[in-house]
């Protein structure tokens, strides 16, 4: 994760340096504007996701089964929050790795997700057990009596 951030920073610096050697100050202005636009687009997406998530209760999802079906390893926490449109209930201590979040639906089914360095590593769907059904009626020991015909 940190390697990717460092690599992105180095790429941006090399891009600015290359634009200066090719086009001078005008090149720096164009590339800097492009980089700024890229940062602003990511910031806007982050704010929109969090704005949508703020309208729902923490840890709530419409259907835990559907969330379980959509999850894939490597999703970021922000991607999962965007899918669910709600912040997860944090089960792990703050700033501890791995981070564990839970989303519960109306039927008390829930999905517990584990994120390592911001990426989804594993998840588990738990559904409540069905209530014990009433035992089936046992046949009586006596055979049924025939009904006499009506006179």
Task: Report on the architecture of this protein.
It is elongated and about 110 Å long. It has a four-stranded antiparallel sheet with strand order 1-2-3-4, covered by helices on one side. It has two domains: about 1-55, no CATH class; about 65-125, Beta-lactamase Inhibitory Protein, Chain:B, domain 1. By secondary structure, it is α+β, with helices and mostly antiparallel strands. β1 and β2 (about 100-105) form a beta hairpin. The longest helix is centred in the N-terminal third of the chain and has 29 residues, at about 25-55. It has four helices and four strands.
Shape: elongated
Cα-based radius of gyration, to the nearest Å: 28 Å
Residues in helix, %: 40-55%
Number of helices: 4
Query: What is the β-strand count?
Result: 4
Structural class: alpha+beta
CATH topology of the largest domain: Beta-lactamase Inhibitory Protein, Chain:B, domain 1
As residue ranges, the low-confidence spans are none
The SSE string, one letter per element, is HHHHEEEE
CATH architectural group of the largest domain? 2-Layer Sandwich
Domains (count)? 2
CATH class of the largest domain: Alpha Beta
Integer average pLDDT:
87
Estimate what percentage of residues fall within beta strands. Answer: 15-25%
Distance between the termini: 90 Å
The main sheet orders its strands as 1-2-3-4
Main sheet properties: 4 strands, antiparallel
């Amino acid at each position: 994760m940190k390697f990717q951030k460092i690599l992105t920073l180095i790429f941006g610096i090399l891009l600015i340096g290359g634009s200066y050697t090719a086009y001078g100050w005008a090149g720096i202005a164009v590339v800097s504007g492009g980089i700024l636009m890229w940062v602003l687009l990511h910031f806007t997406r982050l704010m929109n996701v969090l704005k949508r998530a703020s309208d729902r209760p923490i840890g709530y999802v419409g259907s835990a089964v559907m969330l379980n079906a959509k999850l894939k390893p490597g999703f970021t926490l922000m991607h999962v929050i965007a899918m669910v449109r709600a912040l997860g209930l944090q089960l792990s201590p703050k700033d501890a790795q791995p981070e564990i979040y839970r989303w519960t639906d109306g039927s008390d089914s829930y999905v517990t997700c584990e994120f390592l360095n911001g990426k989804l590593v594993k998840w588990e769907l738990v559904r409540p057990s069905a209530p014990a059904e009433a035992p089936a009626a046992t046949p009586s020991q006596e055979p049924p009596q025939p009904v006499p015909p009506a006179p």
